[in-house]
Amino acid sequence: MAGFTGIVILLLWLLQVVFLGTIHRNVRISEVKDIARRLASYTEAPITLESKAQKLANSKSVCIIAYRFDKNRATEMFSCDAAENCVIHSLEKGELISMHDKAKANGGKLLCYYSYDNEKNKYELTSEVSDGQSIVYSFIVKDARGNDMLFIINAYVAPVASTVRTLNYLLIIISITMITLSVILTLILSSSITKPITKINASAKELANGNYNAAFEGGSYREAEELSETLTYAASELSRVEKLRSELIANTTHDLRTPLTMITGYAELMRDLEGENTPENAAIIADEAKRMTSLVNDMLEISKLENGVAKANIEQFNLTEAVTAEIEKYQEFCRKDGYILRFEASESVVVKTDRTKITRALLNLVNNALTYTGTDKTVIVRQERYFNGEKDVLRYSVIDSGEGIPEDKLPLIWDRYYKVDSPHKRSAQGSGLGLSIVNKLMTLIGGRCGVLSSNGNGSIFWIEIDV
């Protein structure tokens, strides 16, 4: 700001002090040449030429003398005297007429400068350009009969020294005022900009040290407020990620410790005691090993989904038939444990998507429903096809009769290892990653997932894709 102000002041000094005289002379010369162009255009109507020349002389404060040359004889046409310190009206006629030859030798135009010589008490031709001079501009125009018409225009260039001194005083006052104001304004602006950034920087350092409750204050301008809001959101997300990380470690440790303890205990039992090497004990060890394998596989799968390693393998197939086949595989398990798993579909639908990922997502929801369903042990998988106003959509709803989920917890159940503090608890046979995997699988293949639930009314988990 201070530098910009200095540049503005420098331009003012250069234009109004250093180059003022030059600018004034150039403007005056431009005016004289403009008068010459207009006089040349008036020669087509010689009757009105003198009156128009007089008007120009009066409006621009110049003197004009015009001569007509007929067979080398010069006749004065008119003379307009409207300027102070006029040169051409003080010169001898011979000097004026000699300008005809000089102008003719110079291509029909001649610009001269005259200064008043106090010792000789008359105007003298000069080659130096300075204030207080008179400009004499001569030019030749042909009349209707082909004779030369000589126009001599005289304009006085008033001295600007006194004007420059006046401007100097004014510019000194303006410069001091502008510099003072710019410094004050710069301090105010820099303070308003840097203070909130300094505070945000300090809070960011606290955030880097693990204090996720660091407060970010935006200040008084929009960019700082947006930065503050972004960092506040980042702190909130980091806090949430840290919490999930702690839960992940705790739950993973628990899920691994339990089957390891079971495997170790039954293996030692079978080794140390006679008669304990039974198929039942071996089956328990096998089941716990499968449980550990399932947990590790789920963790690897969600890691691939989150890191973008997993890719969708799109193919066209009959999804209704694929779901029917997967449901049939569950029927033996359901009959053995007294569960009822029913699939409802009114038509057979062919889609283009990833067969493995969409069936995996649906089976995760079925596993979840079998874990949390009510005392009737009934789970319904329903296929529905509808038009949403833009696209043909195929939805699979998995319905259980369990305790349901509180409404304020619904957006959180898709997080890894999120646990609802209610009878709706994670199954001992689950990895706790099922719903998170469903969410990421559906996002990968361009589908959607959701849930409808409330306390005491069971849950309806659904996935859908565009047909």
What is this structure's SSE topology?
Blueprint: H1 2-18, H2 20-42, H3 49-60, E1 62-70, E2 73-81, H4 93-105, E3 109-117, E4 122-126, E5 134-142, E6 148-156, H5 161-208, H6 222-272, H7 279-307, E7 315-318, H8 319-337, E8 340-344, E9 350-353, H9 355-372, E10 378-387, E11 392-400, H10 434-444, E12 448-453, E13 459-466
In short:
The protein is α+β, with helices and mostly antiparallel strands. The protein is 52% helix and 21% strand. The chain folds into 3 domains: 2-159, Beta-Lactamase, CATH 3.30.450; 222-307, Orthogonal Bundle (Helix Hairpins); 315-466, Histidine kinase-like ATPase, C-terminal domain (Heat Shock Protein 90, 2-Layer Sandwich), CATH 3.30.565.10.
Give an overview of the whole structure.
With 467 residues, the chain is of the alpha+beta class. The protein folds into three domains: 158 residues, Beta-Lactamase (2-Layer Sandwich), CATH 3.30.450; 86 residues, Signal transduction histidine kinase, dimerisation/phosphotransfer (DHp) domain (Helix Hairpins, Orthogonal Bundle); 152 residues, Histidine kinase-like ATPase, C-terminal domain (Heat Shock Protein 90, 2-Layer Sandwich). Helices cover 52% and strands 21% of the residues. The chain contains ten helices and 13 strands. The strands form three sheets. It has a six-stranded antiparallel beta sheet, sandwiched between helices. A five-stranded mixed beta sheet has the order 8-10-11-13-12. Strands 7-9 form a two-stranded antiparallel ribbon. A hairpin with a 4-residue loop joins strand 10 and strand 11. Helix 5 packs parallel to helix 6 and helix 7 crosses helix 10. The longest helix has 51 residues. About 2% of the residues have low confidence.
